[in-house]
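Tip: read the tokens left to right.
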């Protein structure tokens, strides 16, 4: 899995390896300006980005997540 990085505010796309998703078969990916979600073939959901008001599902004590982290509260669901 690779993520998009735009360091210089240009229209150039640069990609880098997302180590924390290495070895996981990602079947769905969604993102916006501040939030990113990835779903593995096994049904695990990973998030990254701003957790303002708990929007990533990680509770309200965490403001930002800089690397993809599994949303453990979704483990009980078939995704």
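Filled-in amino acids:
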């Amino acid at each position: 899995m690779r993520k998009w990085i735009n360091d210089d505010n240009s229209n150039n796309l640069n990609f880098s390896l997302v180590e924390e998703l290495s070895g996981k078969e990602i079947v769905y990916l969604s993102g916006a300006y501040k939030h990113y979600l990835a779903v593995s073939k096994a049904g695990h959901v990973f998030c990254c980005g701003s957790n303002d008001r708990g929007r990533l599902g990680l509770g309200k004590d965490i403001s930002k997540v800089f690397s993809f982290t599994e949303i453990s509260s979704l483990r009980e669901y078939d995704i």
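The two ends are 20 Å apart (CA to CA). The beta strands are 2-5, 14-17, 26-31, 35-40, 45-50, 64-70.
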